[in-house]
Specification:
The protein contains 13 helices and no strands. It has helices spanning 18-41, 49-73, 82-85, 92-123, 129-138, 146-172, 185-207, 213-242, 247-256, 260-283, 287-313, 338-358, 387-390. InterPro entries: Electron_transfer_protein, NrfD-like. Pfam families: NrfD (PF03916). Belongs to the NrfD family.
């Protein structure tokens, strides 16, 4: 007599929507851009001044928009207060709910201190409502010492380290997903975040009209190093699983071994990463090449950083946890899909535009006790800034 036991396994929908991809992407750009801005803001490196101005612009804009994507991913945004009413210190998500506001406040405060001298100068110029708004934002004519700005900068760096740790750990801690549950995921988040911010600063350098050659050179050098680091992490990650050193990595590779879609994704990722590293290495060896490949490298770097998070956070959820095979997922058009993705990028562009209109960030000296150039510097927000006013060093 034979008995057949039928097991019914429920099909669960995905838990994290594209909102999560947007959050992890923007928050990675936030904390990595702060690191890039640190030499000019905290250490006072003059040859890094133009890069720090662009990096601080990227940091503030992404830091302001990232929490919006996170709230949207809660499905019920108004329940965010539960994190504070019922804290759970053993949960990385709960820890992050306290770290994120601290990071936001520290970043905005740092930018405000860095931009105040330029805001005060604009307030004294005859620029209509823009001068009035600049005066309101500057909040008086008092001066802060550079020590205060450095202390705030160090506090912002500390919160950025916390953001780096929590965003990596809250995904890697999930044991139910072997593709997430690995120690290699957090450092890969960081490496691809650095890649993305290099691409963003390259684009902002061109779009803002600054076009600093020092910024292009510095970002391409960091980009090459980040690509090498990401390649080393990826190779070690694969060898870890192929040799069954780590159970979770081996299980992750087994779960996608028979999937043509995952093989195609791997080929695409490797191709994009290698192409980015090669182009960055070639471009950094000449000024003409840096100008020629700047747009391409910037967009490709952002693509690599964003697509890595899409694969990790979205494609991984299509792997069935309680049965064999894969679940289909198609990006919907509504707010939980394509419209939400476009909306967050649109909100980020809006933040950039508002800062561009009301904050003379190009004139930031990062010295709270030194005023920026007076009225003439603000005659036209759209006009390119001369290399001398940018603090660019030509060698």
């Amino acid at each position: 007599m034979s008995l057949v036991t039928e097991v019914v396994v429920p099909r669960y929908g995905i838990a994290w929507y594209p909102w999560a991809v947007q959050y992890f992407f923007l928050i990675a750009l936030s904390y990595t851009s702060l690191w890039v801005a640190a030499p000019g803001i905290i250490l006072g490196k003059q040859h890094w001044l133009a890069t720090s101005r662009l990096a601080l612009l990227a940091c503030v804009s992404t830091t302001l928009v990232a929490p919006v994507a996170l709230l949207a991913d809660l499905h019920q945004p108004l329940r965010f207060w539960h994190f504070y009413a019922h804290p759970t210190p053993w949960s990385w998500m709960s820890i992050g709910s306290f770290l994120l506001p601290l990071h936001l406040v520290a970043t905005v405060l740092l930018a405000w201190l860095a931009w105040r001298p330029a805001l005060k100068s604009r307030a004294r110029s005859n620029d209509g409502w823009f001068s009035r708004i600049a005066g309101w934002i500057a909040w008086g004519d008092w001066q802060a010492s550079r020590k205060v700005m450095v202390l705030v900068g160090l506090a912002a760096l500390a919160t950025s380290m916390g953001m780096m740790l929590y965003t990596g750990a809250e995904v890697a801690i999930v044991k139910g997903r072997p593709l997430w549950h690995t120690a290699w995921l957090p450092p890969m988040f960081v490496a691809t975040g650095v890649i993305g911010v290099c691409g963003l600063i390259l684009l902002l350098n061109r779009m803002s009209g600054m076009r600093s050659p020092d910024t292009n050179r510095q970002m391409l050098a960091i980009l090459v190093g980040a690509c090498i680091a990401a390649g080393f992490i990826a190779l070690t990650w694969f060898l870890d699983g192929a040799n069954a050193v780590s159970g979770s990595v081996a299980a992750a590779l087994d779960s996608v071994d028979q999937s043509p879609a995952w093989r195609a994704t791997a080929v695409e990722g490797i191709t994009a990463g290698v192409l980015l590293a090669v182009l960055a290495f070639v471009a950094r060896r000449g000024h003409a090449r840096r100008r020629l490949f700047g747009w391409v490298l910037g967009l490709l770097a952002l693509h690599v950083a964003w697509m890595f998070r899409w694969v990790v956070l979205m494609n991984v959820q299509t792997v069935a946890r309680n049965s064999a095979g894969f679940h289909d997922y198609h990006v919907a058009f509504g707010s939980y899909g394509l419209t939400g993705i476009i909306g967050i990028f649109g909100l980020w562009l809006t933040a950039l535009l508002v800062i561009e209109l009301f904050v003379p960030w190009r004139q930031a000296s990062f010295d709270p006790q030194r005023d920026a150039p007076a009225a003439g510097a603000f005659a036209s927000a759209a006009s390119p800034v001369s290399p001398a006013s940018q603090g660019v060093r030509h060698g």
